[in-house]
Amino acid sequence: MNQTRPERGVLEADLPTAVSPRPVPEGAALDHPSLYFNRELGDIDFNWRVLWQAMDDRVPLLERVRYLAITSSNLDELFQKRVGGLRRQEEARVVEPSPDGRSPSEQLELIRNASRPLYSRLSALWRHTLEPLLERKAKVRILNRYELSKTQRQRMARHFRSNIYPIVTPLAVDSGRPFPFISNLSLSLAVTLRRCEGEESLFVRIKIPVSMGRWYEVQPGVFVPLEQLLKEHVTAFFPGMEVTGAYAFRVTRNADIRFDEEEAEDLIAAISEDLRERRFAPVVRLEVEHDMPSEVRSFLAENLAIHEEDIFEASSLLGLADCGFFADLPLPDLTFGRWSGVTAPAIAEHNRVTENPPLFDLIRQHDVLVHHPYESFSTSVQRFIEEASAEPPGPPLPQTPPHHPYESFSTSVQRFIEEASEDPQVLAIKQTLYRTSDESPTVAALVRAAELGKQVAVLVEVKARFDEQNNIEWGGRLEAAGVHVSYGFAHLKIHTKIVLVVRQERDGIRTYCHIGTGNYNSTTARLYTDLGLFTCDPEIGEDLVNLFHHITGYAPEQNYRALLVAPWHMRVRILEMIDREIAHQLEHGDGRIIAKLNGLDDLPVIQALYRASQAGVPVDLIIRGHSRLRPGLKGYSENIRVISIIGRFLEHDRIFYFHNGGDSEIFIGSADWKRRNLTDRIEAAVPVRRSELKRRLLAILEAALADNRLAWDLSPDGSYRQRLPVAREGERGLQQVLMERVSKGGP
Q1: Is residue 549 among the annotated active site residues?
Q2: Does the reported pTM lie above 0.85?
Q3: Which of 148, 340, 374, 652 could disulfide-pair with 152, CB 3.0 to 4.6 Å?
């Protein structure tokens, strides 16, 4: 590999920096808090980078609206999980500091201070930039009640009487009626009223029924937020009373509710109880309209048991995640445009040889690597599972048109699963399901395989954050179809993405495997970049058989010859490979490490990378989200570079590259180098051994490092700066480069 790093372009777009690192004292040990960024504040910085996409006028308008909605949704999750978790620690009087040396209370204060500017910028960007642009470029107007014409008011009044008035339930608060429960992320009106002049003001809460849709289209292209509609007609609920005000507010509750793992004998019951508790969890944030009177704010704060510093005032709409509705308007000229993933070149060539040939024939010849959404999911993974189940084989299955980013998920993974379910020679299919989609073709194929008498085992992770209820329901449906369903462990989350197909062939039983970096979910496959390896390598197959036996039964003392498996030995192997690069660097000067991850916070791994840098090993880290590691610190990390890539697709694939003196080792898998992945989750990373595929993965990494359009460089002080092309240099955005490559028929 070329040891020369790509030249950095001109830097632009300094964004606010939340992480606030401390000065490093001379001679500090590798565990000194000053060597680490704060994890929660790193999440806020990541969301600034996402919001920048909404601020960047190089991005199509509707995509800018989508990025705004994503940032708002991410901020909701930050408060639910991260702030909620810190609040639990604070209440439990946890005194152990974070790796950057801060107590839970200190971190909460920092998060409040750092998230408020982000919240304000979100609100202002919608009101002053994106909303006017929608009117000018998309001919979409979003009006409040004062801006409606007489005809529009009449139309809205009819809609209110017919569709809204019957379902709304005003809830009064007085001496005989307690303050009502306000559900998580619900949008409400705080209504104040009185019987006559001079009497004490009364309070009523109205829950806004956004399940019907947040936006009422009063005429084509003209929308009114539902809370404005209710404000216009709020007096209809209170005949004989004087309404003195109606103000929107929104509540965020702690979603970091944990069941007692020691007592959780029935995991499903424990998760169901966890979901019930989440609805009634403490409030961690209150959002209010800017014109809400102080006495109403105080009344809400008192009854919701929240402090003033946890109240966020919006200058525009509350719940801006709902603006994602406008990103899906049928206006292709204002979007990135539809990307149709191609069939992976190896699979396409295989298809040309024989009409609709089984993927098993190709995988027997050599390993196959697919990259979604550039290459299709349905013609690879989904077809692979489908092929495994017909008795006898039926007519050729209709091909799903590719519609995902890079390589379509539905033309690779989906095909693998569907072929396996239809193949009479397949004896068993085993798969993990972390997140799946509604009407999932993958689940349908597994049900079909069970109906045809195959042994089908599915490991459903019921602790997948915010998908718990959905996964419990899927597990029930699979069990009803005769699938063996396991729900994993109370103390470990099953995060690995693996499929094992056992097939009877002329020379005996053979295992076919798919190990991926992303979920078996055709919806997220349209948006996430992920890698998957198809192989019938017997060593990898044996490892997967052992891993499934461990997860479904009692077999903790397993040995894995090829796979890196967490939480048992993945971290140990990663540390060994980092140490090996140090040895190569000291002996031959050719150490080299590249890792592409979603996040980095595991202290043993970070400290090993610091040691590698001190030994002179060049380390490049492509980390989309947060990083605790501080790059560029003299004496510690001056040989480490960290970049973040934010683009039209969510960078989700994980690749680990170790130069190993020219005999490189490269892995793909589901695990980030984060403590939770390496300690609290079942993960698997697979070695990619075929030289052609290794070169392809290295080319992806090199394209990422050369990016001068989407990449952000992380500085020692925690600031991120986006790259620009240098003079006379064209743009090299990673995602555009990869789309062009597959469009031209290259991998």
Answers
A1: no
A2: yes
A3: 148
